[in-house]
Amino acid sequence: MLSMIGLLTIFVIVALLISGRITPIVGLVIVPIFGAFFAGFNFKEIGEFFSSGIDSVISVVIMFIFAILFFGIMQDAGVFDPLINTMITISRGNVIAVAMATVVIAAIAQLDGSGASTFLITIPALLPLYKRLKMNPYLLLLLVGTSASIVNMVPWGGPLGRAAAVLGVDVTELWRPLIKIQVIGLLLLIGMAFVLGMREKRLIAKKGTNDFEKEDVEEKAPLTDTANDDSSKKAASLRRPKLLWLNVLIALSVIGLLVWGIVPAGFIFMVGFSVALPLNYRTVNEQMERIKDHAPNALLMAAIILAAGSFLGILNGTNMLDSIATDLVKVLPAFIVPYLHIIIGFFGVPFDLLLSTDAYYFALLPIVEQVVTGFGVSSISAAYALIVGNIIGTFVSPFSPALWLALGLAGLEMGKHIRYSFMIMWGFSIVLFIITIALGVITI
Length: 444
Fold this sequence. Notes:
Layout: H1 2-19, H2 24-38, H3 43-77, H4 81-91, H5 95-109, H6 115-132, H7 137-151, H8 158-167, H9 171-175, H10 179-207, H11 230-238, H12 244-260, H13 265-280, H14 284-317, H15 320-330, H16 340-346, H17 348-351, H18 357-373, H19 379-391, H20 401-410, H21 414-438
Helix pairs in contact: 1-2, 1-15, 1-21, 2-14, 3-13, 3-14, 3-20, 4-6, 5-6, 5-7, 5-10, 6-7, 6-20, 7-10, 7-21, 8-18, 8-19, 10-21, 12-13, 14-20, 15-18, 16-19, 18-19, 19-21
């Protein structure tokens, strides 16, 4: 009964997000509350679940608010303009080259194992370029998310750490056979970016909106040089070209501290913002104007992340997620049980729409491992099947707080992202999964 209520709750939320009929905040807050009531929990218990869920995301919320403000100041000051113009000049407006470069940039950014910091580094830097080239911003999110997922198989990433804890093995030992899978995965993704870039180029040409396929693209004016409209004139007035290298040093210092991982990300951005704001805008009125400009986006997405925390807290607190993981295995026919790890791995990406990462690894993995080891399959192989099969779907799942962060940074919608990216990411995951089996990392 608990599993049915949990599944219905998740399906309703995913359906509402995809349909775009309500805001994420309403869906993530109201639907789980009704689910908890139907499951027999009272207001007091739901309140405790809410508090637990909020506690799990509050650090992300703090980081998000100040990250938006910090990167907003960096964009206002023109920090990313030279990078954007250089990339356009090098690629000569080549949409394919930009798509392929996105994969490499995201892979490097993800080396710290944090999806949130990867999006914080890549989205603000690359989104203006995508917009200038008239590229679909959902392609940016697809490529960054997939690249980050592949790299996230590092020992300090969440999935391997959880799997190692479940199996009681050394996480470094668990990782080593996956290194070649990561390398192959990134090479495949660069190839996929080439194909998607070709498709995007055709779509842009069909719309007649790509004016960058010209030989003199390198001579085009910077983002705001020839602007005639009021908003562009305002943006030009905010640029601080004389402070460019100082701003770059501040941005690199913030990113370096993020990668270092010793200082909390929220604190890093809080300090970075507090240094950058008065440096670039000297009067209090200018400073307050910059805050007012960027605060709405920061606060809106902070509210959505808090709502997602409530959603996760209620589903975890009511044990709906654990119950779903347990019952999904029980209802399967007996003749497919020896291949359960292969089946679960094959459908790993769709599972990301049903289960949180914790539920997948701490509830589903132990059950699958226990079942298949009775048929001679090694525990490590079972873990690899679930890891490789699922990890690509990390950033197409509404259970990922980092994805909500990325959507906020890019100004995109969860439902549209799922519609655009889900089948492509699942298809890519299946190909990588088959390669992993062929290489003998996963045994049948």
